[in-house]
Design goal:
Helix content is about 20%, strand content about 30%.
Length: about 190
């Protein structure tokens, strides 16, 4: 253990990137809090949720792109590596960026839970901390286990996480505050849970 209760990293960021580059395309690896994480692959329902979100974004904000699979350098000193299920950015924002882009310019990171045992630790705790430390204005968690949508806003770069959380049950309308600034109807999400 290091100071303030932090763990010693399992490996360096460079070692992680080498492992991630050599991994088969069917495996998604992340590096959060100094730990190697294996992200569960998308199922058809999860993919459908992301497609519906993409259509909504294009409908109300055609100047934005919703990327899937873009890696981000996250955490306080950019020593983490995350692959959000989707990232909302200005159109063409990631052109010319490599596999792991800086989070600057990212408007919202999105995760859709995957029914795996690490959901609580990663999507509900680790990812909000990493994305908040990175200054990403919004984190949208579509939680198929709890049948809720959580909008994290007002990032706290020093402590990590977000100062404001709004939780809505599937079926309610959810407002995404600025810089995104549009509403989501979550009724359809009820169709994509087990």
């Amino acid at each position: 253990m290091t100071g303030r209760g932090e763990r010693t990293p399992q490996m360096s960021v460079q070692e992680f990137e080498e492992i991630a580059a050599a991994a088969p395309k069917t495996v998604t690896l992340e590096f959060l809090g100094g730990r190697l994480e294996v992200k569960k692959g998308a199922d058809g329902d999860r993919g459908t949720v992301l497609c519906r979100l993409r259509r909504r974004c294009l409908q109300v904000a055609p100047e934005l792109d919703l990327y899937q699979g873009q890696g981000l350098r996250v955490e306080e000193r950019r020593e983490g590596r995350a692959r959000p299920d989707a990232v909302l950015v200005p159109r063409g924002h990631f052109a010319g960026h490599g596999e792991w882009a800086e989070p600057a310019g990212t408007l919202m990171a999105v995760e859709v839970t995957a029914y795996d045992p690490d959901t609580n630790r990663l999507n509900r705790h680790g990812k909000p901390t990493a994305y908040g430390q990175s200054g990403i204005p919004l984190y949208l968690l579509i939680d198929r286990d709890a049948c809720t949508v959580t909008v994290h806003s007002n990032p706290d770069r020093h402590v990590g996480g977000y100062r404001d959380l709004h939780v809505a049950k599937f079926g309610e309308k959810v407002s995404l505050p600025g810089p995104v600034g549009f509403e989501l109807d979550t009724e359809i999400l009820k169709n994509y849970v087990r």
